[in-house]
Amino acid sequence: MEREAQLLCAAGGFGRARRLLAAASWLPCVALGLALSSEPLLTARPAHHCRPDPALLPPSLRALRGPALLRASVPRLGPARAPSPCLLLRYPVPGARPSSAPAPSGTRPCTRGWLYTLPAAGLLRSPVTQQERVLSGSTGGWCSPQWDLVCEDSWKVPLEQMCHFLGWLLGCVLLGTGCDRFGRRGVFVVSLVLATVLGASEALAASFYALLALRFLHGGTLAGAFLALYVARLELCDPPHRLAFSMGAGLFSVVGTLLLPGLAMLVQDWRLLQGLSALVTGLLLLFWGFPALFPESPCWLLATGQEAQASRILWHFAEASGVNPEDSSSEENSLATELAVLSAGSTQPQYHSILGLLHTRATWRNGLILGFSSLVGGGIRASFLRSLVPSEQAFYLPYFVEAGLEATASVLLILTADRCGRRPVLLLGTMVVGLASLLLLAGAQYLPGWTTLFLSVLGLLASQAVSELSVLLAAEVFPTVIRGAGVGLVLGAGFLGRATAPLTDIHGRRGFFLQHVVFTSLAILILLCVLLLPETRGQELPQSLEDADRLQRSPLLLGCPHQDHLPLLLPSHSE
């Protein structure tokens, strides 16, 4: 770990070259934020009701038009007398008293499709309200196949949402492992190529099930690009700047989230929106596909024994930062000398598997704790959102509130996690999540409206902070040789938590209360486990599994004069 730090310092430290590369890595986050935030927009459900069918009405009512036809065809529900979304009125067959006023005798399912209140989330056409005129091969005329993911087919919407999140989960796990085997840059470029192709294919999807498969695969490739970019950026930064540049990337992702509704209102068609997203991803590939903007991580190259390639990149860093690689001082050798010695001992690359965690004493435990905290932070978010906005058809309020709180969480972490430490802030965030969730779970029906609103916003903010800090802490705890796979598992756990919300929607939210109870219990359990984590503020990134096992914990009260620098468990020693 010391050798890598000395080489990076001799190559100009966190100088101009590395600063520019780290800052440039923020811009792709706008496109990734656009892609990740598209899920609630594409699956927004507008208000709808059955299309009236005059053929089902009595002869005396078939001449009605406009609102009168709607009143005679669709039943009204609730005090607001809103049209029923899934039913038509049923009238008896005309009998022997044709002069009597016709009265409905029951209800029946829709027969001619639905009418929607559009635009929905800025879109006139979305996968939920898909309506296109295509040529029918059987009749030779035009027919209008509609996906109409409402009523009997409404379960397909949460299924698509769940598949997209599971795609991100699979991409985090598989492509995170690829980051440790093929490098951060290789996975990033390949993921962008696949994401561009799959994004364009989504815009051409001919059926719902084709869209389902493409969204699953697209989510996986976006996860690979996000993960490779996150890890490479972190390894570019020195300890004092890791937090600021990581959270800055989160703010740029929020910018993409905020831009998406405006783009939707501009194009008003989900296919055009997906095509535009694929175009933006392709533009990323055009620029960040070159090594000048996205070089391979020298930390990973040094940790895996690829000294020759690492030497070339470090030499470039030194020259771009205005450092002469030939200069040396009385205390230190020149970078050229260090790199020459390094290249002379170059051997075959040595790669490591995530299964190496099984032979560690503390790193596997740290990863498990952070994985569960990420799971809770991602899963309990839906509970706070539903307490904040109970209506299913509300889109803009929860969308912008969640984006705003995500930006607020990033700013708060920038202000506190370096000053107070990662572990105390994660402990405080988990405590707030648990308390807010407990109060909403136990007394929501007894609390005033403003209290429920305050607890929902506070819990949502804390859950965002817990998710972001769990991923950052995982990147600082896992060693370089398996950092991609380790961070992928923790990040994937967060997407697994987010996938549980649409899972309960498939069954009509009947499991929502149980889900809330489970995540609240996990939050309280994680509150105790966070105390076992090491403090990584200001420390160099561990390179090997042995380095990761030597990470020390510090007391929560940083002002305490007697600090315990002993790990809770003894580090493992290779025999």
UniProtKB/TrEMBL annotation:
SUPFAM superfamilies: MFS general substrate transporter. One of its GO terms (cellular component) is membrane. The chain crosses the membrane at residues 189-210, 216-232, 244-266, 272-294, 367-384, 396-417, 424-447, 453-474, 481-501, 513-533. Keywords: Membrane, Transmembrane, Transmembrane helix. GO terms for molecular function: transmembrane transporter activity. Its main location: membrane. It is found in: Membrane. It is a multi-pass membrane protein. Residues 106-537 form the Major facilitator superfamily (MFS) profile domain. This is Solute carrier family 22 member 17. It comes from Sciurus carolinensis (Eastern gray squirrel).
